[in-house]
């Protein structure tokens, strides 16, 4: 599953699952683009990548919910590297709300923007260039909420269900040179999970056959596999990574 000299773009790449994937791709020999809203966090991780793995790392501040910022990210990456081999649409958010009728238009648009609109625009731009060139791989990071929505995440679940559909559409559109797959995640113990009430964490763990939530680095194997030649016959697939959610 070597990624030597590949160029990998990871959105939401400065923390959580994105950070783990950035470090793993660099350790596997790739040059990485770290895209996230906060420039300082991207820069800090880029320096860590260069120091630890000796790979090129490009930090780019980008809010993927903004169409123009997606366009600017793509232009910056191609100006720096000339190509993209792997795109990981990882950026996501799921704000809390008191009740469904109190979800504001701004909150709804923000959730759809980050979780679905951004992946659509980046995949459309980068996938088109991949298909016209040497091909590549796109990985969408989805959630079990897409198929098991709860009352606290209906807008998020809706966006992730759309992302699952996007995977299928992109795989068809950019075949045969671009493979597009989904990693459908269950609960992971990222920095965001620190804000979870203890009873929520316990309930999430109890819903899995493994009896625990995932560690952030446990996404690495799936991401490296789906973006490598080891998965050369795998496209339009959903890899469920949820510890055996029941």
UniProtKB/TrEMBL annotation:
The keyword Calcium does not apply. Pfam families: adh_short (PF00106). Keywords: Oxidoreductase. It comes from the Bacteria. SMART domains: PKS_KR. The keyword Oxidoreductase applies. InterPro entries: KR_dom (IPR057326), NAD(P)-bd_dom_sf (IPR036291), Sc_DH/Rdtase_CS (IPR020904), SDR_fam (IPR002347). Residues 6-192 form the Ketoreductase domain. One of its GO terms (molecular function) is oxidoreductase activity. Belongs to the short-chain dehydrogenases/reductases (SDR) family. PANTHER family: OXIDOREDUCTASE, SHORT-CHAIN DEHYDROGENASE/REDUCTASE FAMILY (AFU_ORTHOLOGUE AFUA_5G02870), SHORT-CHAIN DEHYDROGENASE_REDUCTASE FAMILY PROTEIN. This is SDR family oxidoreductase. The lineage of its organism: Bacteria, Bacillati, Actinomycetota, Actinomycetes, Mycobacteriales.
């Amino acid at each position: 599953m070597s990624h030597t000299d590949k160029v990998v773009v990871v959105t939401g790449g400065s923390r959580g699952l994105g950070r783990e994937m950035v470090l793993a791709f660099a350790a596997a020999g790739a040059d990485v683009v770290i895209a996230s809203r906060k420039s300082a966090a991207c820069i800090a991780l880029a320096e860590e990548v260069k120091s630890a793995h000796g790979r090129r790392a490009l930090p780019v501040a980008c809010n993927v919910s903004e169409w123009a910022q997606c366009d600017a990210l793509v232009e910056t990456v191609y100006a720096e590297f000339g190509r993209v081999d792997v795109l990981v649409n990882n950026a996501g958010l799921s704000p809390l709300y008191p009740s469904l009728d109190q979800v504001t238009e701004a909150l709804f648009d923000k959730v759809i923007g980050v979780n679905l609109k951004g992946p659509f625009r980046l995949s459309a731009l980068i996938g088109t260039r991949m298909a016209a060139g040497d091909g590549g791989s796109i990985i969408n990071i989805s959630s079990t909420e897409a198929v098991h929505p709860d009352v606290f995440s209906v807008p998020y679940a809706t966006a992730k269900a759309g992302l699952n559909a996007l995977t299928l559409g992109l795989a068809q559109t950019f075949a045969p040179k671009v493979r597009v797959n989904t990693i459908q995640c269950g609960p992971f113990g990222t920095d965001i999970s620190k804000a979870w009430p203890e009873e929520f964490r316990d309930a999430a763990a109890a819903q899995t056959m493994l009896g625990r939530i995932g560690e952030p680095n446990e996404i690495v194997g799936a991401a490296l596999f789906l973006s490598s030649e080891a998965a050369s016959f795998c496209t339009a697939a959903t890899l469920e990574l949820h510890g055996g959610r029941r």
